[in-house]
Design a protein that fits this description.
The chain is an alpha+beta fold. The chain has a domain of about 130 residues. A hairpin with a 4-residue loop joins strand 7 and strand 8.
């Protein structure tokens, strides 16, 4: 039995020796795991500040439409810039200029002098609509061609920090009367 055990030991020793030496000349193995992260270096010096840019107009657009030929109790003005996003988020202001005056009246309006009418406004996708109404007679009012000169529409884009209501509140706090077209335009550095 001793002989058998001795032979078995030599046999296992031979296999281990064979395996040890036969693996040394094989292909390279897979890449090992990545080592630990090194220490961060120092931040560099800050660069020089650039010059301030020109004051902007907060993404405000103004449009003027000729209404001299309008004659009806209702007028739909095509305004392609009034998108669903504008309706949902921005401020849309309107002003009417009657014939024979330089004054722009804010609309909607409950007494558009010199015509003594109410103007109701409806804002829809790509449309700025006006309904002319005689409040004293409780009826619609038919505008004759030549009674109105212009419609001016101002769109003030909201930002990710402001909504349409916030814009109106900010303008009021800054002393800007949104019923005065010229104050609004001057506030945003736009020509009129």
């Amino acid at each position: 039995m001793k002989t058998k055990r001795l032979k078995l030991q030599y046999f296992f020793l031979a296999i281990i020796t064979l395996l040890t030496f036969s693996c040394s000349d094989g292909e390279d193995g897979a890449v090992g795991p990545t080592g630990p992260q090194g220490v961060n270096g120092q931040d560099g010096t800050n660069g020089q500040n650039g010059t301030d840019g020109q004051d902007g107009n907060a993404n405000v657009q103004s449009f003027t439409y000729d209404l001299a030929s309008v004659s009806d109790t209702f007028h739909d003005q095509n305004v392609p810039e009034i998108s669903q996003e504008v309706i949902d988020n921005d401020v849309v202001l309107g002003y009417l200029k009657p014939a024979g005056t330089d004054r722009l009246y804010p609309i909607p309006n409950t007494n558009l002098t010199p015509l003594n009418i109410d103007v109701r406004v409806f804002i829809n996708l790509e449309r700025y609509s006006m309904d002319f109404y005689n409040r004293n007679a409780n009826t619609t009012f038919s505008i004759a061609a030549g009674e109105l000169d212009e419609l001016r529409v101002v769109i003030i884009e909201s930002t990710n920090k402001s909504s349409g209501q916030n814009i109106l509140s900010q303008l009021k706090l800054q002393g800007v009367d949104i019923n005065d077209y010229y104050q609004v335009m001057k506030h945003y550095n736009l020509t009129y």
